[in-house]
From TrEMBL:
<keyword id="KW-0418">Kinase</keyword>
<keyword id="KW-1133">Transmembrane helix</keyword>
<feature type="transmembrane region" description="Helical">
    <location>
        <begin position="13"/>
        <end position="34"/>
    </location>
</feature>
<dbReference type="Pfam" id="PF07730">
    <property type="entry name" value="HisKA_3"/>
</dbReference>
<keyword id="KW-0902">Two-component regulatory system</keyword>
<feature type="domain" description="HAMP">
    <location>
        <begin position="185"/>
        <end position="237"/>
    </location>
</feature>
<keyword id="KW-0597">Phosphoprotein</keyword>
<keyword id="KW-0808">Transferase</keyword>
<keyword id="KW-0472">Membrane</keyword>
<dbReference type="GO" id="GO:0016020">
    <property type="term" value="C:membrane"/>
</dbReference>
<dbReference type="InterPro" id="IPR036890">
    <property type="entry name" value="HATPase_C_sf"/>
</dbReference>
<dbReference type="InterPro" id="IPR003660">
    <property type="entry name" value="HAMP_dom"/>
</dbReference>
<protein>
    <submittedName>
        <fullName>Histidine kinase</fullName>
    </submittedName>
</protein>
<dbReference type="GO" id="GO:0000155">
    <property type="term" value="F:phosphorelay sensor kinase activity"/>
</dbReference>
<keyword id="KW-0175">Coiled coil</keyword>
<dbReference type="Pfam" id="PF02518">
    <property type="entry name" value="HATPase_c"/>
</dbReference>
<dbReference type="InterPro" id="IPR003594">
    <property type="entry name" value="HATPase_dom"/>
</dbReference>
Amino acid sequence: MWNRPRFDLKVRLTLRVAAITAACFAAISAYFLIAADRDAHARIDGIAAIVAKSLELQQGKIQWLPGPRSDFPNLDPVAAYVMTPGLCLAFRGASGEMLQRFCSGAPAPASPPPQAFAAFYRSLFDPGREAARPVTVRGAKLGEIVVSVDPAVRTAEAWHDAGRLTIALAIALPLLCLLVYAALARALRPTRLICTGLERIAANDLTARLPPFDLAELSAIRDGFNHLAESLDNALAERSELTRKLIALQDDERRHLARELHDEFGQSLAAIRALASSARHTAAQDCPALLSECDGIARTATGMMETLRGALFRLRPPDVEELGLVASLEGLVAGWNGRSRGETRFTIQFDGAFETLPAAISANLYRIVQEALTNAAKHAGATKVGVQLTMAGEEIALAIDDDGRPGDASSKSGMGLLGMRERVAALRGRMSFDVGPNGGSALRVVIPLAATEPPVLEHAA
């Protein structure tokens, strides 16, 4: 199984979209606050201009009409039209004294702004800034109109506008994240097929292929994946063919060596035994003291012939194609039980019909079992060795367990294990050699019965 990333790609992209969206909302909020501040200043500037113009008209009317001028400035007529909550109108005389001032009250806000927002807003803007317009009549400045808004009212209005944007953000952001996550999950669903294909490739299943994808980027990955899998499959097929040829050449060399040993050494040992028997017959008549030496030569020759028979059996086993795999393996196990003289007990079990196996699979399975039994008995020092051969579906499973030394270096890295791996690779199978559940060693081999067409992974809807 592949190591999973610490952060899911969909979650990471969704968080980035959320961060960008929040930044956009913040920028929009800042824009609205700036625009509202400009509109507020423009409004009080406009009010100051209107009031100043009204006072200029008042002064002009007073000059043209007879009567006292004590009612100037009179802000009452214009205040009724321009006053808003928190607005203050004032007339500052030419000498700087405040001659008249009107301020409208402001109701307490339903939700007062937080102190942090009020401090932040006042640090960026000037909600209490005054707008002043001079009142001039015939070139003489009589004073100026001063218009201002209560800073608390401006801050409350800004918080009201910002609060609406905050509510909109609180509603829209989770919904947007959910929609983005769903869209990304759908768009990235084919990555599961890619991961599955990579896991099959890692498990030496080079028949895995990816289907076409809608996205151009994933289609490029699919083309590269399928090309890589096909190239590896072809390379493995060429390697398997070369391995099969090498194994066939090795078997031919073994048969040739077996013939040479049988013809040369076998006849020589038979001749030695015959000469020892003749010498013993002569010694019995002329020199009885040599009888023991003649018997020793005969025993040595007999032991060498027994050893030679075992070597010939390992070099050239019974014809598996004629006897069948089951009979050949039963004979192999029986031979090991006979040679071990009770020191090691060998058992074998079969599950399935092995009569129709191809000759190449049968011969290689026999060699694998033969080498595994040799490793278990001679190198691992096992006292119990169990062989189980099972045919299920389109695969053959071989399991060999022993109670020997699992850490034995010669059994794990020797030429015997290498030969078994080569035979399994030639059959496009899988092999593992590990410590058994109850100690000892556990050899597992899985061999497909026949090659199949490369399957295509189903496209996820």
